[in-house]
């Protein structure tokens, strides 16, 4: 069974369309971020989350909200009330931004206030099944660490790809990753998902996935470049993208399947994570084909020439019209790989 | 070749067997994180400034005594920051005398001279750093003792933060978090002081005879007076500045009942403390002894006779309070206050719900992916399934061996590992198909497919490992769990998708020399 017989799609032809489309999404996302702000989870913004489980049917969100409005006047707009978990759990999540003082045992003050307010409103017997309270310093620290981790991870990958491939490839891979980050952020902002630690984990994972995709194609480009010297870079890239298209679609499809299962069955705790991965799986595949490859094709210096110099053994095999299937001179590393 | 194949199979069986052995039964071998098991997670900061200030105050008192003894008069001493003593108005004639006397404290404090006989003593940076470290370590040990006495199983207490002054505490399975926090966070300083004046209802009344100031040899402490039938009211005492004994003199403390059958805490003293306590009580029969807990007078019983090696703290305790107090006294006082920075509690039911949701999601995605693989790659799809299953076993086994904790993002990491695993198989299979389509034989196509894709896999896995490493380095709690899973997953995937999968193909080829491959 074969998904694509011999695809020959000129992907590079659409590179400008892709760039424009991506820019539109990113700019729209940024506009949302600037007008509505990034909804940060408590672990970053500081604040209190309380999950209350009711014994009978959970009261409606409006009634819980009304009970809290008296307790937090003026702040009511910032208090988030959501039903939590499956319906038969009868649980409600309340989030109050910012805990005032970060002193002593007072950290629990807000959580206690929420409990009192709900108890006072006579909404039924309930108990607190989960709390998360984060002081402002921890929030700042985590935000800093999040940025640091992302920047360092991208930097590390940039160096690795530059060493293993060429500099233009590294730029392409990183641009694609940053593109994925921005697009995912845009979607998160648009659908008002909180940026939580789990979401950050998802973002970093999808960056890894996207790089994975990109490397698979670049690897093919590198392999094909060994056989050809005269072909234009855009043609080499097109061939590589087409050769790996079957794999790209199947992998993206299976990842999408897994993430979809996570999104549907994973529960509220994993929802943000799964949504991020869902967006990431799609944009990651798209950016590999259209953004990363496009950047390399835009690159002014003749990348093909440099490769030919780097791998002189390729000269002796001459220029083969079908690089993927033509006999290739084995490089040292390939010989090593074969031994496995 | 057959020999080579045999060694491959043996290696795989040994590895998978060892991992299987490590994870059976899973309920005992896989350590669940707080988000799955339920419990409390908190981050608190040890306010080491407290300990520095105490040290500086003690040093200032010593300096004051020393210069008075040496005959320096008129100098004023004050503590201006946790690490600084300010001395002013040293008479010019006694300047040299002051300097020689003050040289005593210059092993730990740097002296800087100002104008008009003023001096600033600043704690040496080395010494203050050392003190801070000691304070944090001491706080950590005290908290460890308290948590152990609370009977929490497998608690985690780890030092973290850029200044290394934050403690991350995880208490799995603890439901009553507030109680745990009270026990952990209570400073727990005990002092037994002689009551000099009091009790009186206001501070002003108490200090009237002393010009409204605390006299140098006494200190003001609040307390509670409750007369039967009336609401308890706050009263004030002046007590001796130097305590008779402190919590450090205790040998043991346990809950007990006082003469009226009310909950109390009885304690016994170490030898040195018993001697001092016996002397003080013997000389002061008829006076009141203040029992000061965390700077509040808990009770002030009258001394009826000489007490030596044991005593009783009475107050208005509930049985539980008496129990907590004896626990805190046994574990020793905290050297500094604690500030809570972060707190998270997960009820056991919430944790169980997350486990089932995560498991269902993982199983559903696994089944979907496996079905697809068999549908698309036929018999080779079965090969992929075996490789994926081994991947899962090795990953779980590695986590079990390294005592890694399974968290909710960790489950997500499993799902992603499966995704990566499928991708590796797809890459290899697609390549084999390509080689077959180019007219190569089955054996040659397999060899070419595996060896060419291995390089690609190496690159993709190393790149993913790089980002997982940073995630581990800079992530906290659950994110670390995720990164851990991902790292093990990537490594075991590299093994199963190339080595195991290839061995399976080789095994098939060694049985029957087929000209075609079910792929």
How many discrete domains of chain B?
Answer: 3
Counting helices, strands and paired strands, the structural category of chain A is: alpha+beta
Reported CATH architecture of the largest domain in chain A? Up-down Bundle
- CATH top level label of the largest domain in chain A: Mainly Alpha
Per DSSP, the total helix count of chain B is: 15
Report the average pLDDT across residues of chain B. 82
Rg of chain A (C-alpha, Å): 26 Å
Quaternary organization: heterodimer
Rough outline of chain B: elongated
The H-level CATH homologous superfamily of the largest domain in chain B, spelled out, is: Multidrug efflux transporter AcrB transmembrane domain
Number of strands of chain B: 19
- Can you tell me the residue ranges of chain B where pLDDT is under 50 for at least 5 consecutive residues? none
CATH topology-level name of the largest domain in chain B: Multidrug efflux transporter AcrB transmembrane fold
- Helical segment tally of chain A? 13
Using only C-alpha atoms, the radius of gyration of chain B works out to 35 Å
Apparent shape of chain A: elongated
Structural class of chain B: alpha+beta
Q: How many separate structural domains of chain A? A: 2
- Looking at the structure, the CATH topology of the largest domain in chain A is Multidrug efflux transporter AcrB transmembrane fold
The fourth-level CATH homologous superfamily of the largest domain in chain A is Multidrug efflux transporter AcrB transmembrane domain
Report on the architecture of this protein.
The complex is a heterodimer of chains A (340) and B (519). With 340 residues, chain A is α+β, with helices and mostly antiparallel strands. In chain A, 64% of the residues lie in helices and 9% in strands. A 4-stranded antiparallel β-sheet of chain A has the order 2-3-1-4. The C terminus of chain A is likely disordered. With 519 residues, chain B is an alpha+beta fold. Chain B has 3 domains: 197 residues, Multidrug efflux transporter AcrB transmembrane fold, CATH 1.20.1640; 80 residues, Hypothetical Protein Ta0175, Chain: A, domain 2 (Alpha-Beta Complex), CATH 3.90.1070; 122 residues, Gyrase A, domain 2 (2-Layer Sandwich), CATH 3.30.1360. Chain B has 15 helices and 19 strands. In chain B, the strands form 5 sheets. In chain B, strands 9, 10, 11, 12, 15 and 16 form a 6-stranded antiparallel β-sheet that branches. Chain B has a 4-stranded antiparallel β-sheet with strand order 7-8-2-18. The interface between A and B is large, with 87 and 88 residues. Strand 4 of chain A pairs antiparallel with strand 18 of chain B.
